[in-house]
From TrEMBL:
One of its GO terms (biological process) is adenosine catabolic process. Keywords: Hydrolase, Metal-binding, Nucleotide metabolism, Zinc. Belongs to the metallo-dependent hydrolases superfamily. Adenosine and AMP deaminases family. Its cofactor is Zn(2+). It comes from Mucor saturninus. One of its GO terms (molecular function) is metal ion binding. InterPro entries: A_deaminase_dom, Ado/ade_deaminase, Metal_Hydrolase. This is Adenosine deaminase domain-containing protein.
């Protein structure tokens, strides 16, 4: 074995299916955006951008990032740099997600925000395939959620592959937004829902599961009913270990709920959630899983390979990606 586990995890081809755009900005991207804006807004240059994870720093960091991505060109730069970084880290297929946002000061609208992101996603490149999941925020009114579905329909042909429910887990109720998700589903959009990230969400879990989501984010707290439904319906779970640790929904990685999924051989995908604010790239999530649960390189490859089944895309692309993975494995046989 020539490489360290960390190097192996970078080289390993990976899919990333749970990455929020604004949570994914690296310090380098933040600094570039500050340079662009500091003449007009000198206060941005005064914010101290951390270079590594500082517990409890991610809320102010999110607020700061939103000040940086408040116009279309900044959104394009942020999207392009984020895609570059995922590609450099060995991600071959990325479903980036974001909540369309407007800013009255700069004139950015939800439509121009979305157009900015999609225009970059559409830029031709050979190292990574990028698709987009449009997010509905739990704080949204039903009208706002329906507006997101309108946008998804209007821009469907431009790489939007699914709809997400995200945002403050202690705010709002899924059922208030349900008609929007039903309409999205009727129109053929797969759904991924941030699910039971905190124990208080267990109350709405039967409602969420009854809409038959195609993937679930986190699924940290599962009672018997939830586990039974998720296993029976074979719903893949997007796992974000560092995010759960930083947000304190997991106390130690050894006790992370991925443990049960591993034991029960239930499908999951290792994801970053917010690689920028949590300082953990996709390869690092693989390394952490490997080290925490003593997984072999072959098992890490299998986790990555099986994740292809969970992408919001067609069978032809899945088959193509699987071939890329198997060819890579053959070429790197000495690394196993
Ligand atoms: P954006 O949608 O590109 O603006 O990405 C940032 C947004 O993603 C945040 O404002 C939250 O709404 C959402 N988000 C990021 N991480 C999490 C999480 O762990 N749970 C729920 N929502 C999240
Ligand atoms: Zn998330």
């Amino acid at each position: 074995m020539a490489s360290s586990l960390a190097e192996f995890c970078v080289q390993l081809p990976k899919v990333e299916l749970h990455a929020h755009l604004n949570g994914s900005l690296s310090p380098a991207t933040m600094r570039e955006l500050v340079e662009r804006k500091k003449a007009e807004k000198p206060e941005l240059a005064e914010f101290r951008i951390p270079d590594s994870l500082e517990m409890d720093s991610f809320f102010p960091l999110f607020k700061f990032i939103y000040k940086l991505t408040d116009d279309e060109e900044s959104v394009r730069i942020a999207t392009r740099k984020t895609i570059d970084e995922f590609a450099k880290d060995g991600v071959k297929y990325l479903e980036l997600r974001s909540t369309p946002r407007k800013n009255d000061e700069t004139g950015m609208t939800k439509i121009s925000y979305l157009e900015a992101v999609l225009s970059v996603i559409e830029e031709p490149r050979t190292d990574i395939i990028v698709k987009f999941i449009i997010s509905i925020d739990r704080r949204n009114t039903l009208e706002e959620a329906q507006e997101v579905v309108d946008l998804a329909l209007a821009f469907q042909s431009r790489g939007i592959v699914g709809i997400d429910l995200c945002g403050d887990v202690k705010v709002g109720l899924f059922n208030n937004l349900r008609p929007a998700f039903e309409r999205a589903k009727e129109n053929g959009f797969p759904l991924t829902i941030h699910f039971n990230e905190v124990i208080e969400n267990l109350g709405e879990a039967p409602d969420v599961l009854s809409i038959k989501p195609d993937r679930l984010g986190h699924a940290t707290f599962l009672d018997d009913y939830c586990r039974q439904v998720i296993y029976k319906e074979n719903i893949p779970v997007e796992i974000c270990m560092t995010s759960n640790l930083v947000c304190k929904t997991t106390s130690v990685l050894k006790e992370h709920h991925i443990k049960e999924l591993l034991n029960d051989n239930h499908p999951f995908i290792l994801c970053t959630d917010d690689k920028g604010v949590f300082f953990s790239e996709a390869s690092n999530e693989y390394r952490l899983a490997g080290e925490t649960f003593d997984l072999s390189r072959n098992e890490l490859f299998e986790i990555s390979y099986r994740s292809i089944n969970a992408i919001f895309n067609n069978e032809e692309l899945k088959t193509g990606l699987k071939k890329v993975w198997l060819d890579w494995k053959k070429e790197h046989a000495s690394e196993f």
